[in-house]
Amino acid sequence: MSVAAADPDFATRLNAFDLAALVYEDGIAIDRLMVDFARGLAEAGRRVGGIAQLPPGPATEPGQVDLIDLMTGDIRPLKQRLGPGAASCTLDGSALAAASTGIRRAVAAQVDLVVISKFSKQEIAGGGFRAEFAAAVEAGLPVLTSVKRSQIGGWLAFTGGLGTLLDGRMDILVDWWAETERRRAKTRHRHVS
């Protein structure tokens, strides 16, 4: 079920610009872009929360995926290290639970921006961070994620066609954020007047 279908008034409350997905292809350094953008906002005094996937570093083992909680700075490996030849699922359930908690903590803190690293096959299938996406959007917070070009159909089905798709470039991301802040400040000013 899409976010919009679960709540018929959702579309009237959501500014589609607040829900943004960076579109990427294999080989694009989307993780680096998201982490650099989030860190830049935090350095500029914005409250950024949620989770991002750290780009591989020189000491990163092949297949290693690390998530960073953008509010606490905690880094957790997403995959269990099961050793060579292991055939079972390598996703670490406790890391996923901690990441979920990090996203929900950001929503509860009403941060300026909630980052959720990726919308992927897990969310399309009804799992992953699907509930956390919905909670952030329903709280009226700007949400930034990334979606692989081949999975845009699943993203559009989940959002009910709402939201905005962005090319995975820093200049476009910076422009999106500037417009988001401008529009949200205007809305706050209207509510105060």
Automatic annotation (TrEMBL):
InterPro entries: DUF2478. This is DUF2478 domain-containing protein. It comes from the Bacteria.
